[in-house]
Write a structure and sequence with these properties.
single chain; 207 residues; alpha/beta; Beta Polymerase, domain 2; six-stranded mixed β-sheet; two-stranded parallel sheet; globular
C-alpha cells in the first residue's frame, strides 16, 4: 500500500482506536470502510484536519454467511456500542445485502455477494470503496479499485450498483457539507469515465 496512506491511518489515534475495537469484538471478517476512511484522509489532505465529532457514522462491513437474519446487523452494532458508545457504529452483514437491497434502494434483485472484496467493489464511488482492518497491529487494506482516487481527491462513480445521478447527488451534498474547507476546490467529481465494474477479489494489501 502507499506509505502515505498507512501514515495517515496510523497517525489518527481515533481511527486506530476504532480499528482496535472492531478487531477485538470477535465479528466475522469485519472491516471499517466507506465514508469514515474517506473523511479521515480527505479532511487531513484537503480540509482543516480530522474532527471525530464530524463523523456521521462508522460503517463496519462484516461477512457472516452463517447468519443472514435481519437482527444480526443490530446485534453486531450493539456489541460495538457496548465497547465504544461514543462512536456512531453502523454494522452491515455483506453476506445478507441481497436480501434487502432492492427493497430499500429499488431496482432488480441483486445476487449474493461472495466476499468482503466483492462487497467493497459495489460501493458507490472508488474514493470510498476502501475498507481497512487491523490483524494484530498490521494494517490490512481491501481496495478493489486501488487508493489513487482516495489519495488524489477524485470522487469517481462506480457503476456496478448505483446510477450516475445518485453518485452526482451524493457528491453535491458532500461538497455542501465541506464547503468551508480550505482546499475543497481541489476535490473533483468524475462521472463520465467509468471504472471497471466487474467483481474483483484482489485488492488486499498487507503492510
Amino acid at each position: 500500500m502507499p506509505a502515505g496512506f498507512e501514515s495517515l491511518v496510523r497517525s489518527c489515534g481515533w481511527l486506530l482506536g476504532v480499528l482496535r475495537v472492531v478487531r477485538d469484538a470477535d465479528i466475522p471478517d469485519a472491516w471499517v470502510g466507506a465514508g469514515a476512511v474517506r473523511d479521515v484522509v480527505w479532511s487531513r489532505l484537503y480540509g482543516p484536519g480530522f474532527d471525530p465529532a464530524a463523523v456521521r457514522d462508522v460503517d463496519v462491513a462484516f461477512f457472516d454467511p452463517a447468519d443472514l437474519s435481519p437482527g444480526n446487523d443490530e446485534r453486531v452494532t450493539e456489541r460495538l456500542r457496548d465497547r465504544r458508545p461514543d462512536v456512531p457504529w453502523e454494522a452491515t452483514n455483506q453476506a445478507a445485502v441481497h436480501r434487502w437491497y432492492a427493497d430499500v434502494f429499488g431496482g432488480p434483485p441483486t445476487d449474493p455477494l461472495t466476499s468482503i472484496a466483492d462487497a467493497v467493489g459495489t460501493w458507490p464511488e472508488t474514493t470510498s470503496a476502501v475498507a481497512i482492518r487491523l490483524v494484530g497491529e498490521d494494517l490490512e487494506v481491501c481496495a478493489p479499485f486501488g487508493l489513487a482516487d482516495l489519495l488524489g481527491g477524485v470522487w469517481r462513480w462506480n457503476p456496478r450498483r448505483v446510477p450516475r445521478e445518485r453518485s452526482m447527488e451524493r457528491f453535491a451534498r458532500y461538497r455542501r457539507r465541506i464547503a468551508s474547507w480550505p482546499d475543497v476546490e481541489r476535490l473533483v467529481g468524475c462521472f463520465d469515465t467509468m471504472v471497471d465494474s466487474s467483481p474483483r477479489t484482489e485488492g488486499h494489501d498487507h503492510g
